[in-house]
Amino acid sequence: MPDDYFDLNNQSGDTQEKPEDDEVSSWWIGRWAHVITLVVFCALYFPFSGYVWSWQVAATLSYIVFMFCCTCGLSFQDSDDFFGNLAIPEYMGKLLLRQIVILALISLGLYEWHHLIPFLPNWANAPAYRNISLWELGGILLVYFTAVKEATWMAKKIKQQFPEIKEPLDSIPSGDPLSLQPAFSLTASQSAPPDPAQPSRNPADSTCR
């Protein structure tokens, strides 16, 4: 039996065992984004609840914190990926500046959404889920999906700018493509049709010689 057969078997065995070690984790800041956002909102709103601007400032900054945490969770495996390269925080700051118009519209929308509650009909202020009205629930879901959409966009931009970072959402292949190249090239050479320019050899001729 040829040696190439054993080489192919060893390569296929290596590719089956390798994915077990390539487990990609995500930064915990993404999984706890909602908790961090709630803490930031409470820290900014309740101490300054007597001021008119307290709601808008607390809600806007909490939205930015939530979007930032989601972006980190989608882009980095741990804090070393973020702080290991100073160009990454700088680039994320530039991405936030590029969304300044969107953030301003969201801030204005949060302000109007909060101050329209006294003028809403009774059915909009009726409790829908755990003493949360339908108006409040709709606003929370809208802000949530908007922040996740922006975080996904920022994560894609970070991946394009820094391709060396392995994202937690990167699909892990079933085997290392580099380890499959020798087997593929060997198979291709074996299955390739003979070149008509080269004379064909007869195994019996070599035996007779």
Tags for this model:
two-stranded antiparallel ribbon, elongated, mainly alpha, single chain, 209 residues
Describe it for me?
The protein has helices at 3-17, 28-31, 33-45, 54-75, 79-83, 87-98, 100-115, 122-125, 134-161, 177-191, 203-208; strands spanning 127-129, 132-133. It is mainly α and 209 residues long. A hairpin with a 2-residue loop joins strand 1 and strand 2. Helix 1 runs antiparallel to helix 10 (177-191), helix 3 packs antiparallel against helix 4 (54-75) and helix 4 packs across helix 7. Residues 13-23 and 170-192 have low confidence and may be disordered.
Oligomer: single chain
User: What is the straight-line distance between the termini?
Assistant: 23 Å
Strand content: under 5%
Our count of helices gives 11
SSE-based structural type: mainly alpha
The succession of helices and strands, N to C, reads HHHHHHHHEEHHH
Which parts are unreliable, with pLDDT below 50 for 5 consecutive residues or more? 13-23, 170-192
Averaging pLDDT over every residue, what do you get? 74
* Total count of strands: 2
Q: Reading side by side through the largest sheet, how are the strands ordered?
A: 1-2
Radius of gyration: 29 Å
Query: What global shape is seen?
Result: elongated
Q: Biggest sheet: strands, sense, closure? A: 2 strands, antiparallel
Helix content: 55-70%
